[in-house]
Amino acid sequence: MKIIIVGAGEVGFNIAQRLSEESHDVVLIDKDPQKIKRITEDLDVQVFLGSGTSPRLLKESGVENADMLVAATDSDEVNLIACLLARNLNQYMLKVARVRNQEYLQEKELFSQQSLGIDHIINPQSVMVDSILNLMEVPGASEVIDFVEGRVKLIGFTVKKDSPFSGRRLNSFKGIEEKLLLGAIVRENQVVIPHGSDAIQTDDLIYIVVRNNELNHVLELFDIKEEVLRRVIIIGAGQTGTALAMALDRSKVNAKIIDKDSDRCASLAEKLERVIVIKGDGADRNLLREENIGDADFLVAITGDEESNILISLLAKGLGAKRTITRVSKLSYIPLVSAIGIDTVVSPRMSAVRAILQYIRRGKIISVAPLKGERAEVIEAEALETSDIVNIPLSKVKFPKGAIVGAIVRGEQIIIPRGDSIIRPKDHLIIFALEQVVPKLEKLLTVKLEYF
């Protein structure tokens, strides 16, 4: 595929990096010479210095023959205009725009084929709020991702020393094979798609697929105690913090939101009924003590300053907060903050990358979730009747080594698969795949599933 990316910031860079490693024809456009220099030094992609709103530059970049344009700058207006120009220059290409302004998002007709002609809108804030709410549902997890409208969950958590499964081989899990599938293990920053002879070790980050209605039972098996969410403290009343507070306002959770900006606090207080708004500095130790941070189930540090977020989360942990969720924008920071004791990290840029990937992946792809470290993905795809992967046992399907089916969803039935399980046409498949085998998996899902 030929993909043009407008914007060489964190989102554009990471998408370009992933796609270039998969041998796609990638073109990056940005008006910042420093960003262009970084791209040329680090990635094997074609670059153009200039604005993505320039018709001349879009033509020079090959937009008329491109398969997709991804507009991922920090400016909504640039992203929208770039997509509008691309539509006029190539009516057949797919157009994806990153949009954050809620006023734009409320005008859905603005993006229709009759207006701007944008195929998909990515709003990182809404994706991030959903991620935070999912994490609050499973307090012991470091990552929770919904598939098939929440009926299947992917849970990531770290195996503790006293876990009953530490040191055990996967093929020893007798009696629970139908309840879960362990799809990936992250060990010392390496991702492994495990086999039956592999053993779980202490401090492994493991990803399991479970049915939503069996989640609590599975968590008990791994000695993760179910906890009722009672108190949440949010630091930062920006767009994401406000959206999270609005969501919690409709729940029974005792929540407070703290921000230094008087006007922002006053405006938010008018919108909220149950969530308490406090003007103050979330990095103030005395304020956190006054708000009894040690009794909070979650502290969510979600200001626009990631260094402050990290400091606030470490401070809250020192004062006894049970769990912290920390907003970190720079993707290069994520492995570092995990190493210094931060419980869980959410990233608006990672949310954008995750959302965009599902439109880039070939085949009938419904959603894509990069795993921690981005060395593996979980892909939700539909099996079509033209495929030779249907109507035969999974053990006979030639999936690439490094890929495994974690769940098969057939109507209301959710199957945790084994070697004798059979995929039927229109089944939804939840597939774990290492980054390096994704192109082979795409080929299987495209060549065998669909004819173009």
Low-confidence stretches: 447-452
| CATH arch. level architecture of the largest domain | 3-Layer(aba) Sandwich
Strand-residue proportion: 25-35%
Helix amount? 25-40%
Number of helical regions: 14
- Our count of domains comes out at 3
Structural class: alpha/beta
* End-to-end Cα distance: 13 Å
Description:
It contains 14 helices and 22 strands. The chain is α/β, with parallel strands linked by helices and 452 residues long. It has 3 domains: 2-122, 3-Layer(aba) Sandwich (Rossmann fold), CATH 3.40.50.720; 231-350, Rossmann fold; 351-447, Regulator of K+ conductance, C-terminal domain (Alpha-Beta Plaits, 2-Layer Sandwich). The strands form 4 sheets. It has a 6-stranded parallel sheet with strand order 3-2-1-4-5-6, with helices on both faces. Strands 14-13-12-15-16-17 form a 6-stranded parallel sheet, with helices on both faces. The radius of gyration is 23 Å and the shape is globular.
List the helices and strands and how they pair.
Blueprint: E1 2-6, H1 10-21, E2 25-30, H2 33-42, E3 46-49, H3 55-60, E4 68-71, H4 76-89, E5 94-98, H5 102-106, E6 120-122, H6 124-137, E7 143-147, E8 152-158, E9 180-187, E10 190-192, E11 205-211, H7 215-221, E12 231-235, H8 239-249, E13 254-259, H9 262-271, E14 276-279, H10 285-290, E15 298-301, H11 306-318, E16 323-327, H12 334-339, E17 344-346, H13 348-360, E18 365-370, E19 376-382, E20 403-410, E21 413-415, E22 428-434, H14 438-447
Parallel strand pairs: 1-2, 1-4, 2-3, 4-5, 5-6, 12-13, 12-15, 13-14, 15-16, 16-17
Antiparallel strand pairs: 7-8, 8-11, 9-10, 9-11, 18-19, 19-22, 20-21, 20-22
Helix pairs in contact: 1-13, 6-8, 6-13
